[in-house]
Design a protein that fits this description.
This protein is of the alpha/beta class and about 350 residues long. Helices cover about 55% and strands about 10% of the residues.
């Protein structure tokens, strides 16, 4: 602890799995102290006490607010501190000045002081966080179910001829899987018995995962409908698309201050790539790729059976635009619609 007390202090925190390292600087950039705390509630309380003993804390700049720093960020939010999300240090600067936990924490504090870091982290304590938890479980279950089906199909193709012939006569995927799940392979004394045993395990795994996914779907539908009912009414926007958008913006849509900011988060804003007399833009490969993929699916659905979109596609095609360029434009329009229904109504200062 220290006995000094400064009128304005900024705390930078370098977060890790077991220990957080904090550095305090004043509003003139002078380093005031370093502190290390364990990653638990007692450690958070001790870090807060240390910071308060130095002076009035203006802000905490925390690295990794969505991972190792999530617990500390929630703790400080609950105590009404201003928390700023800090990205990892520039690799070139790290190469020039070296790397240590205290240097990274000091860099986080200076990013807040200079105004380079201004983003507010997600609160991670509302319906958006609940949706994120359930969607993680659902996505992993969907992936595992697909792997089980691919492996099961491979086993059927390579199965003994008599077994394969019987299975080929069964029509319908679910009917076939339930038939395989009811196998009684008996003692493993032949290739037919071993194939039946392996198929039975995979079929039962598929059915278990299928049931789990259905449970997640029902839970997600309830949460999404309660959080964004107006967005669900839009053509081509279903539960999983809204879930991705809610996960992206978090429980405080006012964090997204403009339509352009949401477009950048989704990776659908063009990036300037001009030089000299050449004035052009390039495709944005950044942003949240899951949200970008969700926007792509909405665009494809609307291009099939949405009259205003079909008219737009026809117009842009006559102008010489390719299908890929038209889809990029459509994704940008979809972001505008999502912002208006998800963020703008709850953000009085937002502009289109």
């Amino acid at each position: 602890m220290t006995d000094i007390n400064i009128s304005g202090v900024i705390i930078g925190v370098d977060t890790h799995k077991s220990t957080h390292v904090a550095v305090a600087i004043d509003l003139h950039g002078a380093k005031l102290g370093t502190y290390s705390a364990p990653v638990n509630t007692k450690g958070y309380s001790a870090l807060e006490e240390w910071a308060s003993s130095i002076g009035m804390v203006e802000a905490f700049g925390i690295e990794g607010t969505g991972s190792y720093g999530a617990g500390l960020s929630r703790y400080l939010h609950a105590r009404n501190y201003r928390v700023i999300e800090v990205t990892r240090p520039n690799r070139q600067l790290r190469y020039q000045h070296g790397k240590s936990d205290s240097l990274d924490a000091e860099g986080a504090a200076r990013s807040v002081l200079s105004g380079q870091a201004i983003a507010e982290p997600k609160t991670q304590n509302g319906s958006a966080e609940m949706i994120r938890h359930l969607k993680i479980a659902r996505d992993t279950a969907v992936k595992s179910r697909s792997q089980a089906m691919i492996t099961l199909k491979t086993l059927i193709i390579n199965a003994p001829a008599t077994l394969r012939d019987r299975l080929d006569q069964i029509k319908g995927k679910v009917v076939l899987i339930r038939h395989i799940a009811a196998f009684r392979p008996g003692p493993i004394s032949s290739t037919t018995a071993s194939a039946k045993s392996a198929m039975q395990a995979l079929a039962r795994r598929w059915l278990m995962l299928h049931e789990e996914i259905q449970v997640h779907d029902r839970q997600l539908e309830m949460l999404v409908e309660a959080a964004a009912p107006q967005l669900l009414e839009s053509h081509g926007i279903a539960t999983m698309t809204v879930a991705e958008m809610l996960i992206l913006v978090g429980d405080e849509p006012s964090r997204i201050r403009s339509e352009a900011a949401l477009a950048k988060l989704c990776g659908v804003c063009p990036i300037p790539a001009s030089s000299g007399k050449t004035n052009r833009f390039r495709l944005n490969r950044g942003g949240n790729r899951q949200a970008n993929a969700a926007l792509y699916r909405v665009a494809i659905v609307r291009m099939r059976n949405h009259p205003p979109t079909l008219a737009y596609v026809s117009k842009r095609t006559k102008e010489g635009k390719s299908k890929s360029e038209i889809i990029r434009c459509l994704k940008r329009y979809i972001v505008r619609e999502i912002f208006a229904k998800l963020c703008k109504q709850k953000n009085p200062v937002a502009t289109s």
